C-alpha cells in the first residue's frame, strides 16, 4: 500500500503578503488585478473569504462584497523565492516529489524510513518546518493514493493535517459528494446529478456498463474513484532542457483568434532561436497560456517539427480549457534529456 502526501500552502500569495507585512493579517486582503482594469482575484486571505471573496472572482465584484478589501498587485518573483524554499523542504523528505504549482505538491513517502515511516509524523514535520523556515502555513493530507491525499489536505484547511489510513478510506469516501472526485468538474457533476447521482455511495451503485455508456472512458475512472482506487504514480519531474519564447501582453488578448495571430510571431522567433544553436534532438512541442485570472495551462505533444500549424492546434486546445482573455503566451520545444539518449544507446 502506498503512502502519499499532498501538501498545499494556505492562500499562498496572500500568506506571503501577510508574512511580509503583518499589519495586513487581520484585514481582508487579496492578491490580484485592479478592479478598474477588469482584473480578477488570484487569491485572498481568510478575513476576505468571510465576505464571500473567492479566487478567480472579478476584483470589481470582490470590492462590492467587501468594500474595505485591500487588493495587492502580485509579486511573482517573491512568491517564487518562497516556493523554492518550500519545494526544497519536500525534497529533504523524499526525492519522489511532484510539484503541481508554486505552492502545492504530491510526495510519495512509501519508502521513507525516517519518523518510523509514519506519514502523520512526516506531515507534522513538514508543517513545522515550513512555518519556521518560511513563515507560511501548509495543509497536508496523507492517504493511500493521490486523489484521497488531495481531498485530505483540503479537509481541515487552513493549517490542516488529515490522515486517511487504508482502513478508513471506504468510510471517508462514503461521506463525499461526487464533485470531490478528481476530474469531476461542474459539467460532469451536473450530468451525474441528472442521472440521480450526487454522492459516492450512489455512484458505487451504478454499473460500470452504465458509466461507460454515459461518460466514455471517464466512466471507468468514476467507477474506480468511487471505490477509492487511484493507481496514478507521483510523477517525478526531471530537470528537462527546453527552448522557448514567451510574451506577456500589455493588454489581454480577448479571444482565440487574437491568440492565434500572436502565436505566429512567437513561432517565428522560436525558429530563429533554434536555428542559432545546435541542440540535442527535440522530443516534445508545447504551448503555455496564462489567462487573465492568473491560471496557467501548458499543453504538449510529441513531435519533432515545430511548425506553425501544430502550435496553432495546441493553442486551440489549451485556450479552450479556460476560454477567457489571455495575458501571456509561450511556445517551445523540449529536448531529449541526455539520460534518455544514453538509455537509447545514442551516446
Ligand atoms: Mg494552495
Automatic annotation (TrEMBL):
<dbReference type="InterPro" id="IPR050116">
    <property type="entry name" value="DNA_polymerase-Y"/>
</dbReference>
<keyword id="KW-0479">Metal-binding</keyword>
<comment type="function">
    <text>Poorly processive, error-prone DNA polymerase involved in untargeted mutagenesis. Copies undamaged DNA at stalled replication forks, which arise in vivo from mismatched or misaligned primer ends. These misaligned primers can be extended by PolIV. Exhibits no 3'-5' exonuclease (proofreading) activity. May be involved in translesional synthesis, in conjunction with the beta clamp from PolIII.</text>
</comment>
<keyword id="KW-0515">Mutator protein</keyword>
<comment type="similarity">
    <text>Belongs to the DNA polymerase type-Y family.</text>
</comment>
<feature type="site" description="Substrate discrimination">
    <location>
        <position position="13"/>
    </location>
</feature>
<dbReference type="GO" id="GO:0006281">
    <property type="term" value="P:DNA repair"/>
</dbReference>
<keyword id="KW-0460">Magnesium</keyword>
<dbReference type="Pfam" id="PF21999">
    <property type="entry name" value="IMS_HHH_1"/>
</dbReference>
<keyword id="KW-0238">DNA-binding</keyword>
<feature type="domain" description="UmuC">
    <location>
        <begin position="4"/>
        <end position="185"/>
    </location>
</feature>
<dbReference type="InterPro" id="IPR043502">
    <property type="entry name" value="DNA/RNA_pol_sf"/>
</dbReference>
<protein>
    <recommendedName>
        <fullName>DNA polymerase IV</fullName>
        <ecNumber>2.7.7.7</ecNumber>
    </recommendedName>
</protein>
<dbReference type="GO" id="GO:0042276">
    <property type="term" value="P:error-prone translesion synthesis"/>
</dbReference>
<feature type="active site">
    <location>
        <position position="104"/>
    </location>
</feature>
<dbReference type="Pfam" id="PF00817">
    <property type="entry name" value="IMS"/>
</dbReference>
<dbReference type="GO" id="GO:0000287">
    <property type="term" value="F:magnesium ion binding"/>
</dbReference>
<dbReference type="InterPro" id="IPR001126">
    <property type="entry name" value="UmuC"/>
</dbReference>
<dbReference type="GO" id="GO:0003887">
    <property type="term" value="F:DNA-directed DNA polymerase activity"/>
</dbReference>
<keyword id="KW-0808">Transferase</keyword>
<keyword id="KW-0239">DNA-directed DNA polymerase</keyword>
<dbReference type="InterPro" id="IPR017961">
    <property type="entry name" value="DNA_pol_Y-fam_little_finger"/>
</dbReference>
<dbReference type="GO" id="GO:0003684">
    <property type="term" value="F:damaged DNA binding"/>
</dbReference>
<comment type="subunit">
    <text>Monomer.</text>
</comment>
<keyword id="KW-0963">Cytoplasm</keyword>
<keyword id="KW-0235">DNA replication</keyword>
<dbReference type="InterPro" id="IPR022880">
    <property type="entry name" value="DNApol_IV"/>
</dbReference>
<dbReference type="GO" id="GO:0009432">
    <property type="term" value="P:SOS response"/>
</dbReference>
<feature type="binding site">
    <location>
        <position position="103"/>
    </location>
    <ligand>
        <name>Mg(2+)</name>
    </ligand>
</feature>
<dbReference type="Pfam" id="PF11799">
    <property type="entry name" value="IMS_C"/>
</dbReference>
<keyword id="KW-0548">Nucleotidyltransferase</keyword>
<feature type="binding site">
    <location>
        <position position="8"/>
    </location>
    <ligand>
        <name>Mg(2+)</name>
    </ligand>
</feature>
<dbReference type="GO" id="GO:0006261">
    <property type="term" value="P:DNA-templated DNA replication"/>
</dbReference>
<dbReference type="GO" id="GO:0005829">
    <property type="term" value="C:cytosol"/>
</dbReference>
<keyword id="KW-0227">DNA damage</keyword>
<dbReference type="InterPro" id="IPR053848">
    <property type="entry name" value="IMS_HHH_1"/>
</dbReference>
<dbReference type="InterPro" id="IPR036775">
    <property type="entry name" value="DNA_pol_Y-fam_lit_finger_sf"/>
</dbReference>
<dbReference type="InterPro" id="IPR043128">
    <property type="entry name" value="Rev_trsase/Diguanyl_cyclase"/>
</dbReference>
<keyword id="KW-0234">DNA repair</keyword>
